[in-house]
Fold this sequence. Notes:
By secondary structure, the protein is mainly α. The chain contains ten helices and five strands, in the order ββαβααββααααααα. The longest helix is centred in the middle third of the chain and has 25 residues, at 120-144.
Amino acid sequence: MEQGRAREEVRPPHASAASATAHSSVRVPEQARGEHTHGEPPPPRVVVQRHSVRGQILEALRAALVDGELIPGQVYSAPALGARFGVSATPVREAMQQLAVEGAVEVVPNRGFRVAERGPRELAELAEVRALIEVPVMVRLARTVPPAGWCALRPLADATVAAAASGDRAGYAEADRAFHGAVLALSGNAQLVTVADELHRRSQWPLETNPVTRRADLLADAAEHTALLDALIAQDVMVVQSLVREHFTGSGG
Length: 253
């Protein structure tokens, strides 16, 4: 949240519209003359950065995409979305530009941003690419990581189950990526984790024919996380390979 003489507070889409101009930084003045010891140089001018409203809006828009609040094919303007979130149009426009770079939306000149329309083919292609990257890594890790290393990930798997049980789609999306990211992080390859997370996020965007993921699908996906973790702890390489491939083929989660 940015604070200054005024502030912008990110609100959920259903909140009433209220916006104000926010300052991205506040300048701390130098000490007045005579307040420091003789011969001591005055303290440097410091600029304190505040939490990014743009970042908050970006996460809120990503959650709205997963929840199906932003409908594939629909065009949304930055001022209208700003009113929904209770902020000015500027951070919304900046966040939407980032989503356009990621491929989640398309820029419509003089109108706003259209939510991308994705079909089953694109989802299947993403699942195939993710499987090519993650399956061999997880199989290798199943042979090398001791059971204690996998047990430490149990809370992350449980978090996906809890989010699925409550029907929290946005929360499940975050917990899902956190679990997969923690598994891949054991490889020690930061570039792998970054690339895999980007593909994973894209696979979570809604389809034009099914904009909202069913709670039953979330529960089934979360159960696969638990089964996969059990197989990794047991170092059952064959089961791990089978479960990971089925995980991507079935839900892309």
